[in-house]
Write a structure and sequence with these properties.
The chain is mostly helical. The protein contains eleven helices and five strands, in the order E-H-H-E-H-H-E-H-H-H-E-H-E-H-H-H. The protein has one domain: 5'-nuclease (Rossmann fold, 3-Layer(aba) Sandwich), CATH 3.40.50. The protein is globular and about 50 Å long. The two termini are about 30 Å apart.
């Protein structure tokens, strides 16, 4: 059984800000996002004009293309996972915005994976990616011990672009360069394209 990919605010803002939501969804399929991530995306869109397009497109994507996952603290499984990975009760952690979106993305993924589902998480942030990788290893240990758990697969903005290379969304290297240039204008954490695999002949063979 598979679960819709769970996206964090960073990659979501990247693609929505440059009006490339079709590229994102066309590559990964229908998505999901925690309520916390939805709030982060809409707040960023209001605060920073570079992300204004995200605020306009998000309501058009939900609920058909993006399912918003409840961050209800009454959810026993979710609350337990948040407390374990954040090392404090969910009711306390929800009052601190720092890294909260990433924590909720990983927590929702862990709940689904512990129920036996394969889940993809879409995170660029270093801390969030590290947390997702740590939970992936934990699930692997549980599976080795005979537990019937699912898997967590980690992807990010670069992964999406690599998968889209040669598709209708990114038909050639020129289009890839243009899209990547626009992405770097809203995300200074992305490296120069020459430091990525995005122009690798293997992707365009």
């Amino acid at each position: 059984m598979n679960h819709r990919p769970i996206i964090d605010a960073g990659p979501g803002l990247n693609f929505l800000a440059i009006n490339k939501e079709r590229l994102l969804i066309g590559t990964l399929g229908k998505l999901s996002a925690p309520e916390t991530v939805e709030r982060e995306i809409l707040a960023k869109a209001r605060r920073d004009r570079r992300f204004g397009a995200a605020g306009k497109s998000w309501p058009k994507l939900t609920p058909k293309w993006v399912e918003v996952l409840s961050d209800d603290m009454a959810n026993v499984e979710l609350s337990a996972v948040v407390q374990r990975i954040a090392v404090e009760p969910m009711c306390v952690r929800m009052n601190s915005g720092k890294d909260l979106g990433e924590i909720m993305v990983v927590a929702h993924a862990v709940v689904a994976a512990e129920a036996g589902t394969a889940v993809t998480v879409v995170i660029d942030d270093g801390k969030g990616a590290h947390l997702a990788a740590s939970e992936t290893r934990r699930l692997e240990r549980l599976r080795s011990a005979g537990c019937a758990v699912g898997r967590i697969r980690l992807v990010g903005t670069l992964t999406v672009l690599e998968r889209a290379a040669g598709s209708e969304h990114l038909p050639d290297k020129s289009e890839m360069r243009d899209v990547y240039k626009r992405l770097r204008e809203v995300d200074d954490g992305l490296p120069p394209i020459e430091m990525t695999r995005l122009l690798d002949p293997v992707l365009w063979g």
